[in-house]
């Protein structure tokens, strides 16, 4: 028998063994979502936010074929600087391990690894979803099916506004995934606090979210999957929906012209939008991930107290 190639950072191992709060973080956002060195600065800010709110951060990635639950500062820097790293989703995780490869884990793959490690709360920027034009391209992120099957609470700023948000909400409803807007009735749209769409559910703070998560654990025989928490970007960092729509439309038209497809779509659009906005969307992206990390830590702390 092959031993599963999983390695825990010592601080994460101790926290898990003692029932202390832990928040998982993904790494595709590091390898494919943001440019060097902003990606490393983002990770440091996000990990600090988790610690400042009483939890231990566990950044998940695959390095040389080993699933890493928590990264040292050196590992994080190596991953953030590396070029040619893979984008690893559910379909690729075991492949990367078998072949000894290095890559960032998407929301889907991070949920799998977090659940396997016994981590119930995970903070990210925005999940993948149903892409615009999916009726012809069939481009629907594996993140949605993962939310349906894996019991991890994912704290996001909603679905990235480059997606078809109404279709993404429909797909989540079909899969039985609760989508909870925090502190407002409207579904947030990543860079923007509003989307013009009602969120399916609303809760107003970390305690209420923890109560809901605990109830689903209580009803374990019902085999629930995950929960999507949609936390609006802080007001001082937001780019309003109407303004964002123009930048997104431009990036999408260019992507279509250049035939960008498959796994490349999300990273390409995100990078192009950073260029089009002269870096403003990157600042918004960093602010929202940090805010989600804070809320994730509060939820993990509330769960540990129950
Ligand atoms: N959110 C961000 N930046 C990112 C992503 C999310 O702020 O780079 C990544 C996540 O890892 C998510 C992935 O799981 O994009 C979705 O990619 P796709 O649409 O190809 O499934
Ligand atoms: Mn896709």
UniProtKB/TrEMBL annotation:
Cofactor(s) this protein cannot do without: Mn(2+)
SUBUNIT field: Homotrimer.
Organism: Oceaniradius stylonematis
Function: Catalyzes the reversible cleavage of pseudouridine 5'-phosphate (PsiMP) to ribose 5-phosphate and uracil. Functions biologically in the cleavage direction, as part of a pseudouridine degradation pathway.
Classification via PANTHER family: CARBOHYDRATE KINASE PFKB DOMAIN-CONTAINING PROTEIN (PTHR42909:SF1), ZGC:136858 (PTHR42909)
Binding residues for substrate: 87, 107, 141-143
Protein name in UniProt: Pseudouridine-5'-phosphate glycosidase
Cofactor binding notes: Binds 1 Mn(2+) ion per subunit.
GO terms for MF: hydrolase activity, acting on glycosyl bonds; metal ion binding; pseudouridylate synthase activity
Gene Ontology biological process terms from the UniProt entry: nucleobase catabolic process
Signal peptide stretch: none
């Amino acid at each position: 028998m092959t031993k599963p190639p999983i390695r825990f950072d010592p601080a994460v191992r101790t926290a898990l063994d003692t029932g202390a709060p832990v928040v998982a973080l993904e790494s595709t956002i590091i390898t494919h979502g943001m440019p060097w060195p902003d990606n490393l600065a983002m990770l440091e800010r996000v990990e600090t936010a988790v610690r400042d709110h009483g939890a231990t951060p566990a950044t998940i990635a695959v390095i040389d074929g080993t699933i890493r639950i928590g990264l040292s500062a050196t590992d994080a820097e190596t991953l953030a600087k590396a070029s040619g790293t893979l984008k690893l989703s559910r379909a690729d995780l075991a492949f990367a391990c078998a072949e000894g490869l290095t890559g960032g884990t998407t929301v889907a793959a991070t949920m799998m690894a977090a659940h396997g490690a016994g981590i119930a709360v995970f903070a990210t920027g925005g999940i993948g979803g149903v892409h615009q034009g999916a009726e012809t391209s069939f481009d629907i992120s594996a993140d949605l099916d993962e939310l349906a099957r894996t019991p991890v609470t994912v704290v996001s700023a909603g679905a990235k506004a480059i997606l078809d948000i109404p279709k993404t909400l429909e797909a989540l409803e079909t899969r039985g995934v609760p989508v909870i807007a925090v502190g407002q009735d409207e579904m947030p749209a990543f860079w923007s606090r509003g989307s013009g769409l009602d969120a399916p559910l609303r809760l107003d703070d970390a305690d209420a979210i923890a109560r809901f998560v605990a109830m689903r654990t209580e009803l374990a025989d019902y085999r629930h999957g995950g929960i999507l928490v949609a936390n609006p970007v802080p007001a001082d960092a937001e780019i309003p929906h109407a303004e964002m729509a123009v930048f997104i439309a431009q990036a999408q038209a260019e992507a279509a012209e250049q035939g960008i497809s498959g796994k490349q779509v999300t990273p390409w659009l995100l990078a192009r939008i950073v260029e089009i906005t002269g870096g403003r969307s990157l600042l918004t992206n960093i602010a929202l991930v940090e805010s989600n990390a804070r809320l994730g830590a509060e939820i993990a702390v509330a769960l540990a107290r129950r």
